[in-house]
Amino acid sequence: MNYLDISQVTMEFPTPTGPFKALDKVDLKIAKGEFVSLIGHSGCGKSTVLNVVAGLYEATGGGVILKGKEVTKPGPDRAVVFQNHSLFPWLSVYDNVRLAVDSTCHDKNTQQRHEWTLHNLDLVHMSHAQHKYPDEISGGIKQRVGIARALAMEPDVLLMDEPFGALDALTRAHMQDSLMDIQAKLNNTVIMITHDVDEAVLLSDRIVMMSNGPAATIGEILQVDLDRPRDRLALADDPNYNRYRASVLKFLHERHTKPDIANIKKTEKNRPKNAETTSEAA
Ligand SMILES: Nc1ncnc2c1ncn2[C@@H]1O[C@H](COP(=O)(O)OP(=O)(O)OP(=O)(O)O)[C@@H](O)[C@H]1O
Ligand SMILES: [Mg+2]
């Protein structure tokens, strides 16, 4: 049995001009403890895949099975780090993380919850800002709090949507290394969306490259066989690392501004003939 089974997931969004097929039969089996990156051009449907796995979107076709159980709604077994670092603005940094701890760590007493909250803030080097509120901190710092909140839940599956996108290069490298350490310790299964090819190769066991939308699907999957723990400096001169990197870049380059014509035709064919009339009537 697969640990996480994304099976033939199709997603059509209703739009004023008729249904828009964002995803077409996305099929991906993920093992426990595997680190998978999703990469692809902007708008191809990466966040949509993540939202379906998170249980925030209901796929219009196919579905997701986690540990033998169908995903129908969000749950504490799947923590999400959102693309737009969604913190509660009325809660301090500490309370944003503490809320996640209180809602998932039922086996810990008050003191242990306090310590666990501080521990996770410390992991992302945020202890000093624990009393600040989201509108008092920068985008990159908010993102770090979002990561601390997700890690504090010790989820089976960590879903990360461009988690390091807003960080400066040094902090980003530090966070990537911490994530590798944490994942090695906890053996979480991770799906991470990234636009950064080096990040994808450094962190992943597999890189899933998505075709351009509409009706996006999985284009290619690259298995990254590099020993762990991985050291970014040593890998810079590793011919295998550079070969993986080149092959992801090639995939992205070939698809740059080149929509998948076959998929557009398919989508047009599926669009109801009276779509325009319907929108006018609405
Ligand atoms: N709620 C929605 N209603 C209608 N269309 C949507 C909705 N959500 C996403 N889409 C469309 O589905 C497609 C995929 O969107 P998605 O956000 O998953 O892309 P993405 O790969 O995450 O892009 P980015 O890299 O820019 O974050 C886009 O064309 C988007 O406009
Ligand atoms: Mg996105």
Structural write-up:
- The protein has one domain: P-loop containing nucleotide triphosphate hydrolases (Rossmann fold), CATH 3.40.50.
- Strands 6-7-8-3-9-10 form a 6-stranded mixed β-sheet, sandwiched between helices. Strands 2-1-4-5 form a 4-stranded antiparallel β-sheet, covered by helices on one side.
- Helix 5 (169-186) links the parallel strand 7 and strand 8.
- The chain is 39% helix and 21% strand.
- Helix 2 (93-104) packs parallel to helix 4 (139-152), helix 3 packs across helix 4 and helix 6 crosses helix 8 (239-254).
- The protein is globular and about 50 Å long.
- Residues 271-282 have low confidence and may be disordered.
- It is built from 10 helices and 10 strands.
- The protein is of the alpha/beta class and 282 residues long.
- The structure holds adenosine-5'-triphosphate and magnesium ion.
- Adenosine-5'-triphosphate binds next to strand 2 and helix 1.
Task: Provide a short characterization of the protein structure.
This protein is an alpha/beta fold and 282 residues long. The chain has helices at residues 46-54, 93-104, 110-123, 139-152, 169-186, 197-203, 232-235, 239-254, 261-270, 275-281; strands spanning 4-13, 20-30, 35-39, 61-66, 69-70, 78-81, 157-161, 189-193, 206-210, 218-223.
